[in-house]
């Protein structure tokens, strides 16, 4: 059995399936998806349903799932957006693509999907090879580890899914990631924003943090070609990386 992590798939179902083939993912393995499965790309809802239905996959809530849950109606209806993040989700972060797919689901499926998302956690601890890994989309709060999304208030969730050492506008220092000697695996900010365009395609390691956002959000972006972005999968058992670009999936 192997334990894998991947993050920020952003609706790119095709490259996720190619990744599973490449690592020979089996029913004996386990995959953690560290948030932002939806938005920007074409198949966010399909990705959510795939993870939801898989007995050996788990989704943690990222800022894009957070925006969705704070935009759509809790009862699964699609006539209005009662949540405070509707404009932010739909018009600034690619949520309109996800919402169009969401509207196409039967009401019962929308309700089931929302129930499942609300029961997901933001942060979890995993013991692999005598190491403790703290898996989270970006930041963390010890008091909310393994607590379902529905039980955490808005400001606390916001801090966990938005704050990062890798953006000056929502900055939190690397020195804050020191709890109990844990190894932190996070996403949220593409590695290309740190290493620079054209500098390679691999996870970013800093002290006890490993950042694995491979830049799926950049698919089709004018600054990056298909051989410069994709997914980065980390195998926790030995910390080996599998990187797969969009160019390799053609």
Annotation field: number of helices: 8
Strand order of the largest sheet: 3-2-1-9-10
- Low-pLDDT runs of 5+ residues are none
- Report the CATH superfamily: Metallo-dependent phosphatases
Give the integer mean of the pLDDT values. 96
Sheet with the most strands, sense and barrel status: 5 strands, mixed
Report helical residue fraction.
25-40%
- CATH topology name, in short, is Purple Acid Phosphatase, chain A, domain 2
Do you know the CATH architecture?
4-Layer Sandwich
Strand content: 15-25%
What is Rg? Answer: 17 Å
Q: Tell me, what's the shape?
A: globular
The level-1 CATH class: Alpha Beta
Q: Decide which structural class fits the backbone.
A: alpha/beta
Distance between the termini: 29 Å
Describe the overall structure.
It is a single chain. This protein is of the alpha/beta class and 250 residues long. The protein has a single domain (3-249), classed as 4-Layer Sandwich (Purple Acid Phosphatase, chain A, domain 2). It contains 8 helices and 10 strands. It has helices at 13-22, 44-53, 63-69, 86-92, 95-103, 107-119, 154-162, 192-195; strands spanning 3-6, 30-33, 57-59, 123-128, 131-136, 183-186, 204-206, 209-211, 230-235, 240-245. The strands form 2 sheets. It has a 5-stranded mixed sheet. Strands 4-5-6-8-7 form a 5-stranded mixed sheet, with no helix packed on it. Helix 2 (44-53) links the parallel strand 2 and strand 3 (57-59). Helix 4 (86-92) packs across helix 5 (95-103). The protein is globular. The protein starts with a strand and ends in a 5-residue tail after the last strand.
């Amino acid at each position: 059995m192997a334990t894998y992590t991947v993050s920020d798939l952003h609706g790119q179902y095709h490259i996720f399936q190619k990744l599973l083939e490449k690592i020979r993912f089996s029913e004996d393995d386990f995959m953690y998806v560290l948030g932002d499965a939806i938005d920007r790309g074409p198949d966010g809802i399909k990705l959510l349903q795939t993870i939801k239905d898989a007995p050996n996959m788990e989704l943690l809530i990222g800022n894009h799932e957070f925006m969705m849950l704070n935009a759509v109606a809790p009862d699964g209806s699609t006539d209005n957006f009662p949540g405070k993040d509707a404009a932010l989700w739909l018009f600034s972060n690619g949520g309109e693509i996800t919402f169009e797919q969401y509207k196409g689901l039967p009401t019962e499926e929308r309700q089931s999907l929302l129930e499942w998302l609300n029961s997901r956690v933001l942060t979890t601890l995993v013991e692999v090879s005598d190491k403790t890994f703290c898996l989270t989309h970006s930041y963390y709060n010890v008091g909310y580890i393994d607590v379902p999304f529905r039980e955490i208030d808005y400001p606390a969730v916001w801090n966990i899914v938005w704050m990062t050492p890798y953006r000056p506008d929502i900055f939190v220092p690397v020195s804050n990631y020191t709890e109990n000697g844990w190894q932190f695996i996070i996403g949220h900010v593409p590695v290309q924003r740190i290493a620079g365009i054209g500098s390679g395609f691999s996870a970013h390691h800093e002290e006890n943090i490993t950042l694995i956002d491979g830049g799926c959000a950049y698919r089709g972006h004018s600054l990056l070609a298909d051989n410069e972005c994709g997914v980065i999968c980390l195998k926790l058992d030995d910390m080996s990386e599998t990187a797969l670009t969009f160019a390799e999936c053609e």
